[in-house]
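Sequence of histidine kinase (Caproicibacterium argilliputei).
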Amino acid sequence: MNASKISKRWLLNSLGMILAILITLIVILSLTVRSYTYNGIQTAIDSRSEELTNVFANYGRRSPAEFNKAARQYVENFPNKESMELMVFNNRGKVMNTSLGFAPDEKEVMPDYEAALQSKNGYGTWTGKLSSGERVMAVTRVLRSDTGNLVGGIRYVVSLSAADWQILLLVLMMVAVGLVVVALVLLSSRYFMRSILLPIQEIGSTAKRIAQGDFNARIENIRQDDEIGELCETINDMAKELDTAERMKNDFISSVSHELRTPLTAIKGWGETLQGGGLSPESFNKGMDVIIRETERLSSMVEELLDFSRMQSGRMTLTMDRIDILAELGEAVYMFSERAKNEGKFLLYAEPAMLSPVLGDVNRLRQVFVNILDNALKYTDRGGTINVAANEAEGFIQVTIGDDGCGIPEKHLPNVKKKFYKANQTVRGSGIGLALADEIMTLHSGSLDIESQEGVGTVVTITIPTIQKLRDHLEEEHEKKQLEERKANDDSAT
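Predicted 3D structure, token representation.
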């Protein structure tokens, strides 16, 4: 896990976006402040220049001479000489007086004066730099006589240096605030990234250990009560499940190896004995019976393993047909009757008069009955009883196979239908019989339920729908689908 890559992505995405927002805000605020400040200065100049209408209402507008005299008095009595510079133009456009006491550079451009001459209301404004480099804002108003002749003009000039300096200070303050925000974001993101990266790094190292086969690996010190914490808990649960599955697989391999070794040993032993010759017919027949019986046992185990492989890969197929489940159950009970008698156990079957036919695979259903009956006999002591019963209710056939054997401990009961799981390691078996039976019943739209109490016994209930129940269900589904289609058509029409 390369933490620097995540950090770079965080910086490029989140921090980059924050910087872009801050820069945009600073630029917008700076332009807004500059515009507001300049507009204020412009308003102040305009308010001063508008008083010329009253000052020169009559006196000073009749002739250039009168204007010059009145303008000189206006400049001398102007109250804002410290903040504004006044220039007085004669009717020829030449500066004849200023509030500073000296004439400006004749080469200085004055676009506001030119604009005032061209304007109908005699007003012109300009913001720019002087030849000295100083930024100024200037407003010029020209006055004309009643006959329309130019008698002169007055120009107001305000330096923008102080305003620009204040704007610059404000921008610098905003930049400083932005830098503080960025620093706080960096500090908080560093803590945040550490709170994410450290668990992710631990998750990565633990996952690598699990991938290498160390199923005892766990993520320690889970502190976050959030998605990261939930992920850590999930990883730990996964490791625990993998550890359990690994142990079950090893137990399965050990169990199957033992199950295979026992009949192979018997076959090999009797094969060598028969090969030596000199046996009586009775001993020969006994040896052949053992070989045949153990061979059938091996064949059954191999077939069960193949079925399990098909189930795991999803390749288990059923040959569905109309069958009499009562006949198949009776045949399975008959198969185990002799074994129960030889083992000193009682196999009781309360056979009903009639059951409705079902749709199923006759061989697979018989396999389910055989697995359950075999387990019942294996876990029942000598003198115990196995009860088999069947009944029909509400379109379902239920077959119950109960025993008064050792029972299943409560802690093992939720797992007995899982693959490889064996609640009792002392009894022979591969641990896949119940998982296989449960899968077969699921493929038949049925179920396999187990109830057990340790020291009391176990009851297995096999449920499968009748053919009529399946037909009714299919008809209901078909009618429901047609109703939904009609409703969808009606909705589209409206």
